[in-house]
Amino acid sequence: MHTMWKGTISFGLVNIPVKMHAATENKDVKLRQLHKECQTPVKYEKVCPVCNREVKNEEIVKAYEYAKNKFVVLDEEELEALRKEQTDKAVEIVDFVKLADIDPIYFEKSYFLSPNEGGSKAYGLLRNALKDTEKIGIAKMIIRSKEQLAVIRVYENTLVVETIHYPDEVRNVQDVPNVPDEVKTVKKELDTAKMLIEQLTTEFEPEKYKDDYRTALLELIEEKKNKDQTTTTAAVGDKPGPDYETNLMDALQASLDRAKKDKPKPKQPKRKTAQKKKAAT
Questions:
Q1: pLDDT digits (tens, 9 = 90+) for 195-249
Q2: CB distance 106 to 165 below 8 Å
Q3: For residue range 113-128, what is the model confidence (pLDDT) as tens digits?
Q4: CATH of the domain at 110
Q5: The pLDDT of residue 242
Q6: Domain boundaries, position 164
Q7: Do 85 and 142 meet the contact criterion of CB atoms below 8 Å apart?
Q8: What is the pLDDT of residues 60-101, one digit of tens each?
């Protein structure tokens, strides 16, 4: 597994040399854009509109636009010095909190942590302490030239870093349009909705959830490859949309009936009559 970052995690006087690895991977099917006329991939060039020519990478500098068409230019050396200054610091856990205290909207990306040379004992100490206290650590760290707020927690038997958004990166929920303040709910409808939720409640098994779109897209691509892209697939008609005039109670009741029908029946205990007869003889 590729090492993305090496550093030290500290809490109190305990220092843990660690390596960081990406815990997830993007499996989106990437499609290229082609020129329809000649089937050639389209190129994207960096062009200066004033000089009217393509600009090479070595001619490009970074800048911050503080007002319309007004910039502060930043040298790469200055940026690199800032990055190095922060990256060389140990990642210090400054607080411990309960995982349930953090709303999922804050979570961004996950990384596995493994102990670096000489760090196994301290790694195990932090892992066991987090497990026993059922707490997670809050820390700051530099990842890919950005200071990240992060939590450190235990996933199965491994320490995990979860980068989380800063509060000012989460948009104000009050800005969401057309959210009703309060809706009067008919008790019978609410009771039926809660019964439906209970019928559909189960243990979370991530393995049973699949990316159906990606699977279908890959199958389509493979099919077109095998047929030398000469076959035109038949268009699939759109499924009829929901009837919004249907009574809410009818929809809830129908969903509940279907959930009851689809829910597997509990297995009946095997009868021991035959065994009893055998014992009696």
A1: 999 998 988 888 887 888 788 888 887 877 776 753 333 333 444 444 444 455 6
A2: yes
A3: 999 988 899 999 999 9
A4: 2.40.290.10
A5: 47
A6: 5-25+79-169
A7: no
A8: 988 988 888 888 888 888 887 777 766 666 688 889 999 999
Residue 149 lies inside a defined structural domain of this protein: yes
Paired tokens of 238: 């759109």
- How far apart are the C-alpha atoms of 158 and 160, rounded to whole Å? 6
The structure tokens listed for 9 are 């995690």
Higher pLDDT, 188 or 147: 188
* Domain presence at residue 128: yes
- Looking at residue 88, its amino acid is D
Q: Could you tell me the two tokens for 8?
A: 């030290």
Residue 90 lies in a domain: yes
Q: In this structure, which long-range contacts are made by residues 250-253, counting pairs with CB atoms below 8 Å and at least 24 apart in sequence?
A: 252/189, 252/192, 252/193, 252/196, 253/192
In a domain, 121, yes or no: yes
Which residue has 């309060």 as its token pair?
A: 182
Counting Cα atoms < 13 Å in the Cβ hemisphere of 181 gives 0
Count of domains observed in the chain: 1
